[in-house]
Amino acid sequence: MINSTSGPGLLFPKGGWENDETVQEAAVREAIEEAGVRGELMDFLGYYPFKSKTHQDEFCPEGSCKAAMFALLVKEELESWPEQSTRNRTWLTVPEALDRCRHPWMRDALENGFSKWHAGKDISEHH
Q1: DSSP 7
Q2: What's the whole-model pTM score?
């Protein structure tokens, strides 16, 4: 997880996607830009609605957005990355992450998206 630049608590990397990329490509790019991690995008975990103060466009009428969340199997931690001056990367267990997560919708994605997905997966089959 990464620190929030606008207050307490931790976040998962996220951001908007450019018109010339898929949502999957955007997820991989944001993980590199914000957290400095590179890896293999696993599965789509679902859409999670949230309110955004900064984004109000066709995807976010009245600031109501939806985030597409993915599981990423991290294979490389970069020593330098674009947002390292403002972002710290922290590795946590799921219970620690639930406790320190800033946004309820991200907790929901972790608890009901990732944890259920992970419980039904044998991660070792990807090595």
Answers
A1: S
A2: 0.84
| Residue type for position 33 | E
Cβ atoms 38, 32 nearer than 8 A: yes
Which pair of structure tokens corresponds to residue 20?
């010339």
CB 38 within 8 A of CB 78: yes
**Cβ density class 68-101: b for 16+ within 10 Å, e for less:** ebbbbeeeeeeeebebeeebebeeeeeeebeebb
Please give the chain's pLDDT, 127 residues, in tens.
999 988 899 999 998 877 889 999 999 999 999 999 999 999 999 999 887 766 555 666 666 788 899 999 999 999 999 999 999 999 999 999 999 999 999 999 999 999 999 999 865 555 4
Long-range contacts of 103-106 (CB under 8 A, 24+ apart): 103/9, 103/11, 103/50, 105/48, 105/49, 105/50, 105/67, 106/11, 106/12, 106/48
Nearest to 66 by CA among 117, 109, 4: 109
